[in-house]
Amino acid sequence: MSKNKPVVVIGLMGSGKTTAGRLLATALGMPFTDSDPFLEKEHGGTAAQIAVREGAEALHRYEAEHVLAALAGEPKVIAAAASTVEDPRVREALREAFVVWVDAADAVLARRMSSGAHRPEFQPAAMRARREDYFRQVADLTCDVGVLTPEEVRDAALRKMGLPADEQD
Q1: What is the distance between the alpha carbons of residues 65 and 77, in angstroms, rounded to a whole number?
Q2: Domain-by-domain residue ranges, the chain?
C-alpha cells in the first residue's frame, strides 16, 4: 500500500475516530481532516446544533459532503462521521481508500459518550443496527477499541497497509 492512497477512519460515536486518525496522519506524514471542524467551519455549528437547526437529513448530507470533498483532494487521513456510510456515493468513493473501522461493544461506546453533551441521547445499538452492514462492506481493517489503544489501532493499520508500525509508543 502506498502513502498516496487516502485513509478513512469510520465508526460510531465514541469509537475514537479522531484520535486514531490523527495518529495515522502523523505516522503517514499526511494531512488530517475531521468532520466536526468541517461542520463548524462550513456550516456554522456542531453536529448537534446542525441537527436541531436543520434536521438530521441535512446534517448527514453535510457529513457526506465532507468525506467526498476530502477524498477528491490530495491523499489524507479522514475521520468520517458514522452517517456517511449510509450514502451510496460515499461507499463507492471509499473503494479508493484504505478504510479502518474502529468499533467497540455498545456499552463501551455509550459509556464514552455519557460524559459529553455532544449527543446525550446516543443509543449505540440503534446506530449499529442502521450502519453495521455498511461498515463491514467498506472496511479493510476492523479494530476493537474496547481492547486496543489508539496507538495499537495506528500500528495495526500501518501493518495491514504493509508499512512499518511505529513501535516507539
Answers
A1: 16
A2: 7-160
First-last CA distance in the chain:
23
Rounded to whole angstroms, the Cα distance separating 11 from 128 reads 9
**Nearest-CA neighbor of 140 among 101, 102, 105, 103?**
101
Phi, psi values for residue 148, rounded to 5°: -95, 140
**What 3-state DSSP class applies to 101?**
strand
Homologous superfamily (CATH) for 7-160: P-loop containing nucleotide triphosphate hydrolases (3.40.50.300)
| Structural contact between residues 101 and 11, judged by C-beta atoms closer than 8 angstroms | yes
Beta bridge partners of 10: 101
> Could you read off the pLDDT of 87-113 as tens digits, one per residue?
999 999 999 999 999 999 888 888 877
Q: Which three cell numbers stand for residue 105?
A: 461493544
Q: Are 66 and 35 in contact (CB under 8 A)?
A: yes
Cα–Cα separations (whole angstroms), residue 113 to 38, 52, 101, 121, 123: 21, 19, 18, 9, 10
Dihedral sign computed on CA atoms, order 104, 110, 6, 3? negative
Q: Indicate the pTM of the whole model.
A: 0.91
